[in-house]
Structures are given as C-alpha cells and as structure tokens.
Amino acid sequence: MSSHDKVRSRGKGNAGSASVIRGRTSPPFTILPGTRFPPGATAGSEGVNFCIFSQHAIRVELLLYAAADSPEPFQIIHLDPELNRSFFFWHVFVEGLPIGTRYTWRMDGPSDTTSTGRRFYADKGVLDPWARAVSDTLWDRRRACTSQDSGLNRMRAIVVEPQAPATSAAPSRWKTTDLEGAVIYELHVGGFTRHPSAEVAHPGSFTALKEKIPYLQALGVTHVELLPVMAFDTQDAPSSVTDRGLANYWGYSTHSFWAPHPGYSVDPVQSTREFRDLVDALHEAGIRVLLDVVFNHTAEGGKAGPVIHFRGLANDIFYHLDAVDRRHYLDFTGCGNTVNCNHPLVTAFILHSLEYWVEMLGVDGFRFDLASVFVRGDNGIPLANPPLPWAIEFSRTLSHVPVIAEAWDAAGLYHVGAFPGMAWSEWNGRYRDVMRRFVRGDPGLINEVATRIAGSADLYIDDERKPANSINFIACHDGFTLYDLVSYNTKHNEANGEDNRDGSNDNLSWNCGAEGVTDDAAVNTLRLRQAKNLLAILMLSRGVPMLLAGDEVLRTQRGNNNAWCQDNELGWFDWRLIERNADMLRYTQELIALRRRHASLATNRFFTGAMVPGRDIADIAWHGARLNEPLWNDPEARMLAFTVAGQHTDEEDLHVILNMSDQFLDMPLPVMHERRWHLALDTTQSTPADILVRDRQMPVIGGTYLTGPRSVVVLEARE
Q: What are the distances in angstroms from CA 394 to CA 387, 424, 463?
C-alpha cells in the first residue's frame, strides 16, 4: 500500500469522466488522503501530493487543468476534512498525475472582514503559495479587481518534476561565505538581454543571460545581484501606467515565492531547471548569485487589490490589518499591504522559501527589499528582538550565505547601522549620499567621506560588525544611473504617466552645467570625469562595492529616476554602448582589477592607524594640503588624500588624492623607503592614460603631484 494511506477513492465528488493529459486519455485520477508535509505540490514515482494551509476554511477543492489556458478543470477534487486535513493543513495525493498539470485551489469558510479580518471567496480559485512553477496566461489583474472576476481568470500553479539538491549548494564551495573581496553587479534579468543589440536566442530570459557570462567575467565582478526573479505580477501598476502600454518591469510585486518568474523562462514548466542551469553556469564561471527578494508585501495589494492566494487562505495571518477595522490593510511599504513577517507561520514560510532557493536552486545569498518591515510585530510596532531576522541568521542553511538588508521601509523605519542580527550586511545609503555630495563639490564633508572610505566603522564597529557589512554604492536600480547622476539636476519621469510625481526629488546630482543631452564638449568631458571619479572612490573604499549594470558603459535613462515600469529601450541594457563607450568600459574593468589585486582595499578589517607588522608604515594615513594634516575642521574643504599600506611585502602601497575643488593642487607625496611612486590612475587624463595597467605605469619624478580640479589620482609604490 502507498505510504499516503490505505484509503482509496475514485475522486469523491470528482467532475468529468475523461480527460486528455499531455496527449493521453485518462479517467479521473485516483486519490488518497495525502500528507501535510511538504506544502505545495510534490511529485513522486506514484503521483503527486498536494498540501495547502488554511486554518479557518471549511470547504476545500483542488481543481486540475490540462493546460494553462484550459477553460474548465478536467477534475475537481473535494477534500474531506476527516481524511484530508491535519491541523490547519489540507492535503490530498493524486495517483499517476503527470508533470505539467496545472492546478488551483478553491476555499470557502466564515468571512468576517471587520472583526477578524478573515476572507473567503468560494467562487474564486486561489494560487498555491508554495507552487514551484506558475503560469499567468489567463490572468487579467484589472478584471480580477472587479465584480466581473471569474474562476477562470486565475494564475495557475504547475506540477513540476522532482529535482535533486543543487550540486553547488554545499557551503564549502567558496573559500569565504561572507562578502570579503566581493564586487557586486546589480542587474535585471529581462532588461539585460531584451534589447535587439543583445543578439541572443531567447531575449529577456534566464537562458539568454547565460550567453552574457563572458562579458561579466571580463568585467571582473564576483557576484551578480539579480532584481526580483521570484514570480511577480507584471500587471500590478495603476491605470495611468498600464494605459500607456507600460507594466511592472522591475518585479517588486511578488506573488509566488517558490517559483521563478515565468516571463524569464522559455518554457514555464521547466522554469526551475532553466534558472538552475543559469546558476550552475555562473558558478562554473566563478560568479556567485545573489537574489533581490521581496517579502515585505505581495502582489495582492490593498483593499481594492485582487485575490491571488493569501487573501483567500489566511488573510488575518499573512497581512498586517488595522486593529480597529480589520477590513483595512496597514501599509508600511507603499504597495498597499504589508506581510506580517513575524507571525510563526509566515516566518516559517519565508525561511523555508529562502532555504529552498539555496539548497535546491544553488543561490548564494539574498538582498531583502524594504527589510525594516521584518522588525514589525503583529500590530506594526517595531520589536526589540524580531524573530524573522534572527531566524534567517541562525538557519543552518542560510548561515552559510550572505544576507543583505535594505535597512529601511516606506513608513519611516531606518536601520542603517542598526539592523537586528550580527551577520546582516546593509545597503549603506549614507555612503551613497555623502559621496554624491562630495563629488558634485559640496564643501566640509571630508570627515564623513573618510569614515565611509574606511568602511563606516561608526555604523558597525560597536556591534562587532566589519566593513563587509557595508554595501557601498553610488547608483542602483532605484534612482539615477551613474551617467544621469552627472547629467541631470532634476528627475524627468514624465514617461511613467504619473505627471513626474513619482521617484525621489532629492537626488544629490549635478548636471555639470547643462541639463540632459548637450553638444557642449566641455560639459561632456566633465561628466565623463565625474563618472570616473565616483566609480574610483567606490572601488577604493573598504566595504563591498556594488555597481549598477550599465554604469560601466554610461547607460542613460534620460533623467528618469524611477524606471520601474519601463520595459523598453529606456530600461534595457543597450549592447551598442560597449563599443560606443569602450573607453569607459575599459576604465571600469581596470579599476575593478586594481581593487581586486589590492588586499588592502578589500580586507574585512577596519583601519586603526597602527603600524603594519614588519613594516615602518601605518595601515592608513590621512592628508590635506600637507602630509598628515587632513583638513578635518575646514568647513570649505573639498579635498582629501590618504595612504594605504600594502598588507604584505609583495603588495604595493597606495596613495590616493581626491580633489573635488575647482583648483589645481600640487599635492605632496609621502617619502617611501626603498619604494617609488608610480602613477596608476588620473581621471583628468584621456584613455588609456586615465588608468594604467601595472606594466605601463611610469614613476613619478619629484615629491609632489599636480592634481587637476575635480579629479581622483591613485599612485602605487613599489621597489
């Protein structure tokens, strides 16, 4: 007998007498009671076990479809609470059910939206939250939000073939499990290969991204951070946006936290295999994979949003609801709802989802969108010791991979430097802001600039954290690109259809003298130098640098600082730029190589000013117009220099000059015993003199270096 139970049934209450599944005719499939673990649809040699959670449901049905667009289910299975329920889980085993079968659930129960917040929709199918693959062929979000919604207008889960654990999932596959030495490259899976210039077989897919791995290798990055790849609702956008033919492009509207996005798959049934093939290929190339994940809200949105899953399963458990009138959703995310992350069931759901992506799909770590939501308790009030962040940190699986918090939310919580836990790294928004201001020429910032360059010890050392806890960045997907940062003073988001109201108004940018596209050669030259300055400082700072995809070739969004809905050439990577801006690409490649060959820049320790063992030199020394006299107390200071000692006798020392003033400065150079300074980088120079490979560097004659205005200079000292 099957281990699922000895009780067999020809499908109690099953509809239909025959059906066609993948080309063969079958009677209604025999069912058994099934088991409550694991949740979701689990295929085996004998059939498929289905399990879903709903504490207060009293009538549950499983609907099986032959295809994504089948108008009717070929079998409806009514679950018996005596046989098919264990505690709050409903389950059933379907014998012989083939891979590729689509399915939804239907739930009914006592709704009481005002006092308990419980909602049930007996006439609507709900998506399995544990689905490993999904299809959205028939989904119409706008219709789903109206009274004309029908049971047919549903996303459908897909039964997928069982798979073995990822061969690369062992913690020992990398020498380090933290981010020491990492250079992160943030990219959008669809947008990276969707432009015609990408010349790939399946644009915008996991498969297409594999074709671009040689480019990533040549760039020199160690990690890719993929914008959301968990299945999301592309239709989750206001009508002012969708009426323009735009869609939710970035993907911060997740509905299925165990399933790869079907839009990135050549075949949705094979979406998990296609994603894992991508991960394996990146690993083979020596590149690790981080996922940007969105557990702070879901695609169901607010009160007027559609029913997808949680709302019709356990609305009162999965979401923060207003304590007085539980018809209303608390919104700490700006997206209509907030996931109740610290409820035990929800915490387990999130934790197990993350472990699945590591153990089964080979992912190497995560960046968590609006992670301060993880701190909020049932009533939305921040907790002193929130369970979820600590549960992630203490997970046997997740303790071996880096976890990165976007340590704020849309309702005012800001945890940069104070996110709960010890192992968490953070997107360092304070680094971004001060470097933008410094490079555009704001005075009196060198104290904080030095602190950020040195790894932000003021934020992390008191908690015994390290520089790798700081993810340093100048630009990311959210905001101006690097080139737009030096080309626009204000945002230009009219194309989004929201009258330029969306996106940040505080960009800390400078257009170098002209707004947007210009033929002024002097302005364009300055913009290029400013972009190089920003990238140089990023790669010379302790902590973990993150580069936005396309910044290495000066990709522009024409001043749009919120391209979340621009699934078009505005938001795509234009591969023609690698030729058009080849000089900037070469500069970035050499800059990354410079960082990676200097352990002194990437080591996961804070500077102390103490002498390096075995050498007569401090690990760092700060300077101003005179050596060892930084202008800490000068409110007009726009320049800073520093010397970084090599970590061992074979590593060159570095001397860095940051001159963001409008003046030429003749800067003194430290005297190095038995070593001479060689010019490695000067952003005032044209390519290839802007950055020189080691063998082409020339020694500097004399004890000073004439530093141009608004420039970065790097010198290396060697025998």
A: 10, 11, 17
Separation CA 60–CA 52 (nearest Å):
10
Query: Any catalytic annotation for residue 651?
Result: no
Q: Which two tokens stand for residue 114?
A: 């005002």
pLDDT by residue (tens digit) across 292-322?
A: 999 999 999 999 999 999 999 999 999 999 9
| Residue 178: per-residue pLDDT | 80
**Cis omega before residue 688 (within 30°)?**
yes
* Dist CA 73 CA 20 (whole Å): 11
Q: Residue 717 has what pLDDT? A: 96
Token pair of 651, please?
A: 């590593």
pTM, entire model: 0.96
Q: Could you tell me if residue 430 is left (phi over 0), alpha (psi between -120 and 50 degrees) or otherwise beta?
A: alpha
- Catalytic residue list contains 274: no
Give me the domains of the chain, ranges plus CATH numbers.
19-158 (2.60.40.10), 182-600 (3.20.20.80), 609-718 (2.60.40.1180)
Catalytic entry in 136, 292, 300, 369: 369
Question: Helices marked H in 454-575 — which ranges?
Answer: 457-460, 482-485, 521-539
Q: Which amino acid is at 290?
A: L
**Beta strands per DSSP E along 560-698:** 620-623, 639-644, 653-659, 665-668, 676-682
Q: List the end-to-end C-alpha distance of the chain, in Å, as a whole number.
A: 78
Q: Which two tokens stand for residue 104?
A: 């939804």
Query: Are the beta carbons of 330 and 248 closer than 8 angstroms?
Result: no
Q: How far apart are CA 540 and CA 537, in angstroms?
A: 5
Q: Enter the DSSP assignment of 339.
A: B
Contact 161, 43 (CB under 8 A): yes
Q: Which contacts qualify for 511-520: CB closer than 8 Å, 24 or more apart?
A: 511/486, 511/487, 512/486, 512/487, 515/487, 515/488, 515/489, 515/490, 516/487, 516/488, 516/492, 516/558, 516/559, 517/487, 517/558
Q: Which of 233, 406, 448, 484 is catalytic?
A: 406
Give the Cα separation of 238 and 501 in Å (integer). Answer: 13
| Contact (Cβ atoms closer than 8 angstroms) between residue 641 and residue 623 | yes
Q: CA-CA distance, 367 to 406, in Å (whole number)?
A: 7
Half-sphere exposure of 32 (CA within 13 A, CB side): 19
Joined tokens for residue 545: 């640098």
What pLDDT, in 10s, does the model give residues 75-130? Answer: 999 999 999 999 999 999 999 999 999 999 999 999 999 999 999 999 999 999 99
CB-CB contact of 403 with 393 (8 Å):
yes
- Identify any residues that bridge with 365 across adjacent strands, giving them in sequence order: 290
**Residue of 287, 315, 299, 392 whose CA lies nearest to 115:** 315
Determine which helix (DSSP H) or strand (DSSP E) holds 392, and give its type and residue range. Answer: helix 387-394
